[in-house]
Give the backbone structure.
Amino acid sequence: MCFTKRFKFTLYYCLILLSIIGINQLAVAQTADVDKQIVVLVKPISPFVIIEHGIPSGFSIDLWRELAARADFKTTYQIVDTLTELLDGIENDSADAAIAAVTITRGREAKMDFSHSYFHSGLQVLVRSSETGIATQVLEVIGSILTSQKFIAAIFSLFIMLIVAAHIIWLLERRRNKQFAKSYWSGIWDSLWWSLVTVTTVGYGDKTPRTHRGRAFAIIWIIFGYLGFVWFTAIVSSTVTVSRLTSSITGPDSLAGHRVGTVRRSTSAAWLSENVPGARILLYNVVDKAYDDLIEGEIDAVVYDAPSVLYFSSHRGKSLTHPVGPVFHKEEYGIAIPEGSPLVEKINQALLGLIEDGTYTQLYQKWFESVSLK
């Protein structure tokens, strides 16, 4: 009986000891997870993440630096080029966190965790500036006409018709009309001149057909000249109208029928596909390429995160681009973290701490003092 009591006591003691050891090991493991070198994915998006000579800076970098100091994190930054790479890195658990300007969405929350929101954002439309001088605007219109495929096709068609008409009138008039040389090259040149001045209704009168067949053809050619002039004018007018449509974009409600650039897998891409079916949406891996194409006239507008759009238009794109319409489709930015990560609590505690002690306000004023996000 005494042996049985001693055995039970020893067994209970061992179980309690093992439980204590297990709890301690779990705590040590969790501490090790938190205290290890934290790999943070970042991607360029001014002014949140700016990469210069391989070194990241920006609002989000400053925010993480303050956060890491409070949470006792040792950070290693891993720079990626695209939003797709950043999101995939968190989904695949190949990094501990990602910070840039990552919007918290229901779809992303299903695949990863997020910190508390640290930035209120939204989408914004950016267009090329048309606030230029009259001469510049005229040159832009002329340039759009001369580079229009319809205009080029019309000029080519008119040239072919002039050549055909020149041959017809030359064949009809060369034997009985001294105004048209009998030799081929001289005769065709004379006939080409007649065809041009007739079809444009100028009619200098220095060369006129004398044969009945020549005059009959002249009547047909004059009628064609009027119709051709109307057709040609319509093409030029439509080209000018299209060139002016770019400046008619006044906000998200006027994007239909335009070439609109945005970033692949972004919330702006999702919004455009759902709300502007009439737009031609061009997807880019990086927003800077979309901005460049906008300036070059390759696209008509860029729809992207308002902070990025406003920062670009007030810095590198100043006087070349300007935002139009209100900030729409309100969004929240957060720090992306692999699902189930033990870092979430420490990140949130540190984030709330720097918001409460005024550090966040100082960082915000540093990077967004000259940018209005209202």
In short: The domain at 127-133+249-330 is CATH 3.40.190.10 (D-Maltodextrin-Binding Protein; domain 2).
